[in-house]
Write a structure and sequence with these properties.
The structure holds two protein chains of two kinds. Chain A is an alpha+beta fold. Helix content of chain A is 41%, strand content 17%. Chain A has two domains: 119 residues, Beta Polymerase, domain 2, CATH 3.30.460; 313 residues, Orthogonal Bundle (Cytochrome-c3 Hydrogenase, chain B). In chain A, the strands form five sheets. In chain A, strands 1-2-5-4-3 form a five-stranded mixed β-sheet. By secondary structure, chain B is of the alpha/beta class. Chain B has one domain: Rossmann fold. Chain B has a five-stranded parallel β-sheet with strand order 2-1-3-5-7, with helices on both faces. In chain B, strand 1, helix 3 and strand 2 form a beta-alpha-beta unit. The chains are: A alpha+beta, B alpha/beta. Chains A and B meet through helix 6, helix 9 and helix 18 of A and strand 1, helix 3 and helix 4 of B.
Chain lengths: 526, 172
């Protein structure tokens, strides 16, 4: 362990490039490193990090983080198993890094809406989560803005409407879809520019569901924020609650009991199973193959019912809390889960065989909606989508939490990056989750389910692999209450991949590609 | 060459129900009876998400899985509000969705019913009184029935729809 930590330190020092900066590195509570830099140092450092192939996995703003400085921008960089947070103290204007790190573009727009920070040299200065009816100069995440209803603009002039990128030329026309879609789906707007049936360009517009999650958490007692974390995205309730609790526990250096780690890991894998099943069913529904879809829909309902038996909630809600669990799971129910998992393995293989031996399915799935590997790093694409495009990224393996250091999931990336690869990666991950749960059930110890929660002031970053990919959560507790809760779900970054995946495809394949990427609107819009 | 006689004699290529839930069968039959009388055998529902956390959508989608398969009771989820009798609203109404939600409601022909599904749609839930939301669905238009829950299970949603049918039958 000591040798490993030594290695970590060395590589983070290599990452920052200069000896002077390396000496100023401060270790955080949860394995991350902080480096506060002045404005002249920031530019060269960012360029250096880009040349050393770091990924910008998060960027957010917070107030009064450094004494006598109003705004601090926190840039979260990742390379392999090292996480470096560069704290950039800034005024109301800063230079953009979106040309070095394309994933910064949405992050910067988010900071601009929330805090009013202007980014010089940004290639996209449109609003992000505040749509045009929000008044000018309104920045809800600033501390001096109270969380109360705001007077909206009564009407919006045509000139103030959101300007979509326009593609012009002979035979190019636009197809506008949403925000309200034809199915039972969340709202978002898709603007296609097509030539005939071929998609020439797609621009997405999200944030119709912006509910002010981050502001809502501020000023609350840490244990009261778990419910808010669960509301980030319904089918990622466990991942978001766990990410939040891990941060709070890391700040207080709370060691949770062993049994808690087992149960939390089981819950996370159950959530992944439900999500992957729903996803696979969805892909089959979208190509009009109900026989295949039903197999997975039945299994998913069974998983939901099992969830309710274990926790009282079909979405596994209300279980995880700072310091442990709200309730234990009895032995009889765990035995029932074991039996269920064994049967599920057989039943799942039957469904999978039906699907993968049907030529019309393969014909629609491949080669459709390709995401190239070269997009993964610039856009910070993570999760099964990345692993279907040759990316070897999985938080469970690169930054193990709970019991994933002892129960290591398999990493089986595919390289084609199409819908079929995503379907297949999810299938192998599903079977892998079943194996993990079986092994966890075999070893689960008796014991306490809670360490009395201690709340301490401080801040920590935590990363969790949700069913969709890397979830980033940063919590700052000040005077016993939550000062800042930043959450960036995998979908926030993964959404941007869809604009690339559909190019050259036809509009009828869009729903299939969209489903195969399984993106959460709620988790993006916050 | 297929022998037509053997087709008659051979067993049909069908399987037993892979799933069957008696409680749902019972509830479904009761709903079907009401739909037959009140809505002329077909109830068309349009779902509108005004800011949910997606759990409620998942449960509404589940109504179409083989366990529930509500279409056999006469319930269809339609693509256009113009075809809908009932608008199911999920999630608190966000500022960013207010205009689209209003347009969806206005596009429905009368008589129309609105059902709020889930705590957030019923009252605004944890988001009530904040900068980003207007409140529950009733902040925008009249709501005929509220089905609370975080999220309500498919059975609870069905039970709610039965209550709506019965209420609508009385006012006819």
């Amino acid at each position: 362990m000591a040798a490993e930590m030594q290695m970590d330190t060395e590589s983070v020092q290599d990452l920052v490039g200069s000896k002077d900066l390396a000496e100023r590195l401060v270790p955080g509570c949860n394995g991350e490193y902080y480096l506060t830099v002045g404005e002249p140092e920031f530019g060269p450092l960012a360029t250096g990090l880009a040349s050393r192939k770091c990924v910008l996995i998060g960027l957010f703003c917070t107030e009064e983080f450094t004494r006598d400085v109003r705004f601090s921008l926190l840039y979260v960089f990742e390379k392999k198993n090292v996480v470096l947070i560069v704290v950039r103290n800034t005024g109301p204007a800063a230079t953009s890094v979106a040309r070095l790190f394309p994933s910064a573009s949405w992050f910067e727009r988010e900071c601009r809406d929330g805090f009013g920070i202007e980014f010089e040299g940004a290639f996209d200065e449109r609003r992000l989560f505040l749509h045009e009816t929000y008044p000018e100069g309104f920045h809800p995440l600033r501390k001096d803005v109270r969380n109360v209803p705001v007077v909206m603009r009564p009407s919006v002039n045509v000139t103030d409407e959101y300007p979509f990128r326009s593609v012009t030329g002979n035979g190019v026309y636009q197809v506008a879809v949403g925000p309200v879609h034809a199915g039972i789906i969340e709202p978002g707007h898709f603007r296609f520019s097509v030539i005939g049936e071929k998609i020439f360009n797609l621009e997405i517009r999200m944030f119709y569901k912006h509910r002010g999650i981050e502001k809502l958490a501020e000023g609350k007692a840490p244990q009261d924020v778990v419910g808010i974390a669960e509301a980030v995205s319904g089918d990622e309730s466990v991942a978001n609650a766990a990410a939040y609790c891990h941060a709070v526990e890391a700040i207080a250096q709370t060691a949770v009991p062993e049994r808690v780690l087992y149960i939390r890991t089981i819950l996370m894998e159950l959530e992944r199973m439900g999500s992957h099943l729903g996803d696979q069913a969805g892909m089959l529904v979208d190509i009009g193959f109900p026989l295949g879809a039903s197999q997975f829909l039945v299994l998913r309902e069974d998983v939901f019912r099992m969830n309710a038996v274990l926790t009282g909630s079909r979405f596994l809600r209300g279980m995880i809390e700072p310091g442990g669990l709200s309730r234990d799971i009895r032995k009889r129910q765990l035995d029932e889960l074991g039996q269920f998992i064994r049967e599920l393995k057989q039943r799942y293989r039957i469904g999978l065989k039906i699907v993968l031996s049907t030529s019309s399915v393969l014909d629609r799935f491949s080669p459709t909606g390709i995401i190239r590997k070269s997009l993964l790093r610039p856009l910070n694409i993570t999760g099964p989508i990345a692993r279907a495009s040759g990316g070897r990224v999985d938080v469970r393996i690169n930054h193990p939490y709970c019991l994933y250091d002892r129960y290591v999931p398999a990493m089986k990336p595919l390289n084609d990056g199409d819908v079929l690869s995503r379907f297949t990666v999810k299938a192998s991950e599903f079977l892998d989750s079943l194996d993990l749960i079986e092994r966890l059930l075999a070893d689960i110890p008796e014991g306490e389910i809670k360490t009395p929660p201690e709340i301490r002031d401080g801040y920590a970053l935590s990363l969790v692999e949700s069913a969709r990919g890397e979830t980033l959560c940063w919590v700052w507790i000040r005077n016993g209450t939550v000062e800042r809760y930043k959450v960036r779900t995998a979908s926030f970054c993964n959404w941007q991949a869809i604009e690339h995946a559909v190019q050259g495809e036809i509009i009828p394949d869009f729903p299939l590609i969209n489903k195969s990427l399984n993106l959460s609107y709620a988790g993006t819009d916050l | 060459m297929v022998n037509s006689l053997s087709c008659l004699l051979k067993n049909k290529v069908t399987e037993d129900d892979i799933v069957r839930d008696e409680e749902i069968e019972q509830l479904g039959r009761e709903i079907q009876r009401e739909i037959d009388v009140v809505f002329g055998r077909s109830l068309a529902i349009r779902e509108l998400d005004t800011g949910s956390d997606n759990a409620t959508e998942i449960e509404i989608n589940n109504l179409s899985n083989p366990y529930y398969d509500v279409e056999r009771f006469g319930i269809t989820f339609v693509a256009s509000p113009r075809h809908a009798d009932v608008l199911i609203v999920t999630g608190a109404v966000t500022q960013n969705m207010a205009l689209a939600a209003r347009k969806t409601y206005d596009a429905m022909p009368s008589p129309k019913f609105v059902v709020a599904v889930g705590d957030d749609a019923c009252t605004g839930g944890i988001f009530k009184g904040t900068y980003a939301v207007l409140g529950g669905a009733d902040a925008l238009f009249p709501v005929d029935l509220k089905i609370p829950g975080n999220p309500p299970a498919p059975k609870e949603i069905l039970a709610g729809l039965l209550a709506l049918m019965r209420g609508a039958g009385k006012t006819r």
